[in-house]
Design goal:
The protein has 493 residues and is of the alpha+beta class. It folds into three domains: 230 residues, Fumarylacetoacetate hydrolase, domain 2 (Alpha-Beta Complex), CATH 3.90.850.10; 181 residues, Ribonuclease E inhibitor RraA/RraA-like (Glucose Oxidase, domain 1, 3-Layer(bba) Sandwich), CATH 3.50.30.40; 41 residues, no CATH class. It is 24% helix and 26% strand. The chain contains 13 helices and 25 strands. Strands 15, 16, 17, 18, 19, 20, 21, 24 and 25 form a nine-stranded mixed beta sheet that branches. Helix 6 runs parallel beside helix 12. The longest helix is centred in the last third of the chain and has 23 residues. The N terminus is likely disordered.
């Protein structure tokens, strides 16, 4: 169905909205964020877009465009879609050479003439399901993007409702709803085609092919007037979609957060009892996460803390923070290899703080474990997964009975201990302790030295010596120990 599109009053675009794109970028937003595009950037199908002289990173982004039909002001999610008149295709073109200059506003990087082609045909919004739309993009006939709105982080009605609480959406306003993975750089001579359709509908609905040809501009930007285009490897990687696609060498493997392998091995060999004794010698007495025990017999966890905070249940707050992509889900989606998710549940064991699905996600991301001073749902299933979890035990209730997932990567209290992101967490059959990163090398080396000493003392006790003067060692026994240690260190000993 075709209809003329007058120049809109506002063009509003969202930054990240497809899971595939977020995975590609390595970051997942908790809430939608937006930017404006000038109406002068609009174009129709079969148009051209210039890559400005002196630039290299013009990129296409196939997107679903929503055209507002009736004014929307503080509308509900349930009613939001009724304010959309038309759905069509768009290409949210952007010049990464100016991206850093704009610092997120995208005024220049995405505001150039012809940077927002729209059309060619319109799909009546009332006749399609916003959860079952599809966007595809081709470059020179090769399919580069193919995703559906079922893969959105923030559903289309939510975007309308969210924007309408800040300003009135007026008839003719256009909302660009995000691009999936596959966006990449285009060069002069390339032809991009974007199409939106409803593949699961009983009827055929399509925007038709929105075609744009890239040409080479001849006029460079004037540095005397403003900042000039500039690119680095980060912009190249994001514009092309990956370092490999950009022709860049692979990045060096990231080290485990906060811990190198040697330090991790030392901590794995050091018992929490010994570590806690060394912390106590240095004046740290509040290092214990009390009341928790392991779901797996003999489990040992070593890692850096990734924190998650719950606040007490309150119905209005759970409504705003408990659903959707909440703090709990963000924490488990973002945990890195070698990290331990530490959860503040205020010592309340009468509801679950995680279950088998989140345990699977943590394991898939190679987390070192989970520590919570609350309960665990699906306790047996979580244990079967093999993820070490230290908790107050099993409880069948869902999170919302007692908690609202509130924040991640903040200072929390867990089991009576203060835990900051990046703190060193060590847990074994004796319990779980928190070690400040600045002290960890000193503490673990002292612990291992003490373990060696204690093993020698145990040998003497086993041989029949009394503990008086031996544990702890007096001067005489200390001399014997030093002599035995020196002898064992001699070559051939």
């Amino acid at each position: 169905m075709s209809a003329p599109i007058d120049r809109p009053g506002k063009i509003i675009a969202i930054h990240l909205n497809y899971r595939s794109r977020a995975d590609q970028r390595g970051r997942t937003p908790a809430t939608p964020s937006y930017f404006f595009k000038p109406s002068s950037s609009m174009a129709g199908t079969d148009g051209v877009v210039e890559r400005p002289a002196g630039t290299e990173l013009l990129a296409f982004e196939g997107e679903i465009a929503l055209i507002i039909g009736t004014a929307a002001h503080r509308v509900s999610v349930a009613n939001a879609w009724s304010h959309v008149a038309w759905v069509t295709a768009s290409n949210d073109l952007g010049l990464y050479d100016l991206r850093a200059n704009d610092k997120g506003s995208n005024v220049r990087s995405k505001g150039g003439d012809g940077y927002t082609p729209i059309g060619p045909d319109l799909i009546p919004a009332a006749e399609v399901d916003p959860a079952e739309l599809r966007v595809r993009a081709w470059v020179n006939g090769d399919l580069r993007q193919d995703d559906e709105t079922s893969g959105l982080l923030f559903p289309l009605p939510q975007l309308i409702a969210d924007l309408s609480q800040h300003f009135t959406l007026e008839p003719g306003d256009i909302i660009l709803t995000g691009t999936p993975a596959g966006s990449s750089v285009i060069v002069p001579g390339d032809v991009v085609v974007v199409e939106v359709d409803a593949p699961h509908s009983s009827r055929t609905f399509t925007s038709g092919g929105l075609r744009t040809t890239v040409t080479q501009g001849t006029v460079a930007f004037d540095g005397s007037l403003g900042s000039l285009p500039a690119v680095d490897d980060l912009q190249r990687a994001e514009a092309w979609g990956s370092r490999e696609a950009a022709g860049l060498p692979a990045e060096a493997p990231a080290t485990e957060p906060g811990l190198d392998p040697q330090l991790r091995a030392k901590l794995a060999a050091a018992p929490t009892a010994g570590l806690s004794a060394q912390l106590r010698k240095r004046g740290l007495h509040a290092c214990f996460i009390d009341g928790v025990s392991a779901n797996l017999p003999g489990a040992k966890i070593v890692g850096t803390a990734k924190t998650l905070r719950f606040v007490p249940a309150r119905e209005d707050l759970f409504k705003t923070h408990g659903g959707g992509y909440n703090a709990q889900k963000r924490a488990f989606d973002a945990v890195e290899e070698g990290e331990i998710i530490v959860i503040e549940a205020r010592g309340d064991a009468t509801t679950g703080t995680l279950g088998d699905i989140l345990a699977l996600r943590a394991q898939a991301r190679r987390a070192a474990g989970v520590v919570t001073d609350g309960g665990v749902r699906d306790f047996a299933a979580v244990a079967e997964i093999g993820l070490p979890v230290f908790s107050q035990g099993a409880h069948p209730s869902v999170l919302g009975r007692k908690h609202v997932p509130w924040d991640v990567d903040v200072t929390i209290a867990c089991g009576g201990a203060t835990v900051q992101p990046g703190d060193i967490i060590v847990g074994d059959s004796d319990g779980v302790i928190v070690i400040p990163p600045a002290l960890v090398e000193e503490v673990v080396d002292a612990t291992l030295a003490q373990e060696e000493e204690d093993a020698w003392i145990a040998e003497q006790v086993e041989a029949g010596h009394p503990v008086d003067g031996l544990f702890p060692m007096n001067a005489a026994w200390r001399a014997k120990y030093d002599a035995a240690k020196a002898a064992s260190a001699e070559p051939g000993a």
